[in-house]
Amino acid sequence: MDVISTAKSPACARCGNPIGTSSIIEGDRYWHPECHSSFSDSASRAFYAAPTMRKEEQPIVERHTLRSANEHRQSEWDTDNAISLSYRGNELAGEVGEACNIIKKLDRERLGIRGSRASKAQLAEELADVVICADLIAMHEDIDLLGEAVPAKFNATSEKVGLATRLVPASTIEAQQAEIERLRSELSKFADFYDEQDKKAAGEDEQLRRENERLTRLLDQATEKLAEYNQLRDTTESEASALRKRVEELESEIHDVHENSERAFKGLTALNAAAYILGRVQRLARIAGEGTE
């Protein structure tokens, strides 16, 4: 087993994170010093003696907060929940020391002093470890570090020294986000409701349009029938007028015939009377002639 310093190493066989400034190598496997079984108890030693699952075989579990991710990873990492508060404190001190060592090397480079160098990326890694370890200690003591403790301390310091800047607690932001999501959900419901009403109104408008077209067709048919009736009425009135005129003509002709008939009857009566008188005269003449004989 060798402990070596390295600027760039493979991922740790235990935690899967990139190796920082030092690592332990056994064969072709690398560990952070604090991740190797030699840095833990016998139970951990037995656990890590088992073959390590290859990185591509590990199922990925995603979490959206540091505390949630720490809790889940610790349930994998410290299955017996054996890590103590003092262990966490030493772990934090070690990460702070590593960060300070990187800061020293960065300053060394700025000052032009000979010696090993480091990068900002390495400093970022070590500072990230410091934050993670600090949250692990807070988790151990059930302290909401980033959600409550850090904003409370930040704001207390601002208030103490008379500065205006305040840090909004994550819980407040989460509550605001939850309220925003609630409002979005309500707005979505209203939008769905109004969309449904619009669709319903559109359907009713379509029905009204079809009914209007039907009534328009009926009106056009009624207009055509009225025009036919008016034409028929005009034709009937014309024929009736001609008929009345013909009746008047016939009445006039009948009147003339009646008058002519009366005149003819009168003439016929006078003629008959003359013939009767003549017959009487002739009879009397015969009677007179017979008497003279």
Keywords:
mainly alpha; Cysteine Rich Protein; 293 residues; 6 helices; 4% strand; rod-shaped
Q: Give the total of beta strands.
A: 3
Structural class, from secondary structure content?
Answer: mainly alpha
Terminal CA distance reads: 208 Å
Instruction: Please report the number of helical segments.
Output: 6
* Gyration radius, in Å: 64 Å
**Low-pLDDT residue intervals, each spanning 5 or more residues:** 1-9, 41-53
Order of helices and strands: EEEHHHHHH
Mean pLDDT: 79
Order of strands in the sheet with most strands? 1-2-3
Form type: rod-shaped
Helix content: over 70%
Strand-helix topology:
Layout: E1 2-5, E2 22-26, E3 29-31, H1 42-49, H2 66-77, H3 85-111, H4 120-140, H5 145-161, H6 170-292
Antiparallel strand pairs: 1-2, 2-3
Helix pairs in contact: 2-4, 3-4
What this model shows, in words?
With 293 residues, the chain is mainly alpha-helical. Among the domains are: 60 residues, Cysteine Rich Protein (Ribbon), CATH 2.10.110; 83 residues, no CATH class. 71% of the residues lie in helices and 4% in strands. It has 6 helices and 3 strands; from the N terminus they run βββαααααα. It has a 3-stranded antiparallel beta sheet with strand order 1-2-3, with no helix packed on it. Strand 2 and strand 3 form a beta hairpin. The N and C termini lie far apart (208 Å). The relative contact order is 0.04.
